[in-house]
Design goal:
The protein is α/β, with parallel strands linked by helices. The protein has two domains: 8-140, Rossmann fold; 147-221 and 248-382 and 428-450. Helix content is 43%, strand content 22%. It has a seven-stranded parallel β-sheet, with helices on both faces.
């Protein structure tokens, strides 16, 4: 656990990347009462960034392969925010250095393979998880757009479902602990060059090359996942294995509800891994949770044309990623280091993340069944802008509530450790802004009895 005598409250590592620069900008412009330092591989780029931001703070140039330098950097701060990806290539040294220094760690990864390497959600015999426990350190990955909206949005939705069942408590025979809760998540991106329009031009170079690195490591990740599934055969685990679809609907279908319409396509991301890990953690800590929890996630496409465009671009990128050095050169030329969507694009883009939480219950008197359903939405700014907001606020939340988390150590999801505090913090911070970074709303609630 980090000491109160640390020189800095936050150190942002990887600050010269596209998303890292946005994280640095948000931290330096809003945290007037906190001590912030920036770090990265290039002193020159750090100085240029600071000049662009018009701010002053201390800078540290440390290579991601310099373990001793990273550990010395980590010893200076209470929390380190890691923005240097791809994380499966560069992240483990930073995590190990934070653990050795007794410094809490947050990052913005969206890589399932890296999250798996940290022991989230499978901590058994994981060397990094055990080291974090021994050091009393919190390691919390995926604190950006991947995967805060999905993680906290699921918590918000399940709580709304719990409140609805409490209102109908006299009618139902069984509490939530005896039911199965399913959550479906639908992501829609607005804007002319958004994913829902079939365009990947709004992806930054960091995100783009992280996706490619994840594809290269997908085979080994799937093998580890299948091995764990074989080991769990015959167990009583109630959380579906991470990455496995839990929806009874076709993998591709048309979805239409209030404020929600489009072609739903299964979305490959770290969100299902994180959400199910949070659910598993809640199940371990409390008996007041559903007997079975399932989660599935989709991206909503605006039209068949948009779907075709996205499929064509994805196929082309995948083919080039397999085309050796020639393909790699083309991809790097298309998305050079530091590239990201401009401010005009970011100001015109937002994400609406819809959640449908449902459960079936048995009525006490008649023996008939009823279905309780809640439709909520989490609306955020453009994903890179809101990643800066989420990651910095998560780090500050750790600092402010660390005294309440004295027994918390290891590698966990944001929702399972900071869920209550961070959700309240984000709602409060957004409520006092003219252009809220994030909002959570209940759109529909339904309690329907079946004959």
């Amino acid at each position: 656990m980090c000491s109160e005598e640390r020189r800095f409250d936050l150190v942002i590592y990887g600050a010269t990347g596209f998303t890292g620069a946005l994280v640095a900008r948000y931290a330096l412009r809003t945290l007037n009462e906190k001590k912030v330092a920036l770090a990265g591989r290039s002193q020159k780029k750090l100085e240029e960034l600071l000049q662009q931001l018009g701010k002053s703070c201390e800078l540290f140039a440390v290579e991601s392969c310099d373990v001793e330098g990273l550990e010395n950097l980590a010893r200076r701060t209470k929390v380190l925010i890691n923005c240097a990806g791809p994380f499966s290539l560069f992240g483990l040294n930073v995590v190990r250095s934070c653990i050795a220094a007794g410094t809490d760690y947050v990052d913005i990864t969206g890589e399932p393979r890296f999250i798996d390497q940290l022991g989230v959600p499978h901590s058994e015999d994981n060397e990094i998880f055990e080291a974090a426990v021994q050091a009393g350190v919190l390691v919390i990955p995926a604190c950006g757009f991947d995967s805060v909206p999905a993680d906290l949005g699921t918590i918000f939705s399940v709580r709304a479902l719990e409140r609805m069942l409490e209102q109908h408590a006299t009618e139902t025979e069984a509490p939530l602990t005896d039911t199965e809760v399913s959550v479906e998540c639908f992501m829609h991106f607005s804007g002319q060059r958004s994913l829902s329009k079939g365009s990947i031009s709004g992806l930054s170079a960091g995100t783009f090359h992280t996706i490619l690195e994840s594809l290269r490591g997908m085979e080994s990740y799937r093998e580890r996942k299948n091995q764990r599934r074989r080991q769990m055969n015959g167990s009583t685990q109630t959380i579906r294995p991470a990455g496995e679809s839990s929806s009874k609907k076709p993998r591709f279908h048309y979805e239409k509800r209030a404020g929600l319409e489009g072609y739903a396509l299964p979305l490959m991301s770290s969100d299902p891994v994180i959400v199910r890990a949070s659910a598993k953690r809640f199940e371990e800590k409390s008996t007041q949770r559903a007997k079975t929890f399932s989660y599935s996630q989709y991206i909503l496409m605006d039209s068949w044309v948009a779907l075709s465009k996205l499929a064509f671009q994805a196929a082309a990128v995948f083919a080039l990623s397999r085309a050796g050095s020639f393909g790699q050169r083309i991809l790097r030329y298309w998305k050079p280091e530091g590239f990201g969507p401009d401010e005009e694009y970011r100001s015109q883009t937002r994400a609406d993340v819809h959640f449908i939480a449902e459960t079936d219950v048995k009525l006490a008197n008649s023996g008939r069944r009823a279905r309780a359903s809640v439709h909520t939405v989490c609306t955020t700014r453009e994903m890179y802008e809101v990643t800066a907001f989420f990651s910095v606020e998560a780090a500050l939340c750790i600092i402010e509530v660390r005294s309440k988390l004295l027994e918390q150590a290891g590698c966990f999801t944001c929702g399972s450790v900071l869920g209550n505090e961070l959700l309240a913090r984000l709602i409060y911070k957004s409520g006092i802004e003219d252009n809220p970074a994030v909002s959570f709303k209940i759109l529909e609630q339904d309690f329907r009895v079946f004959d």
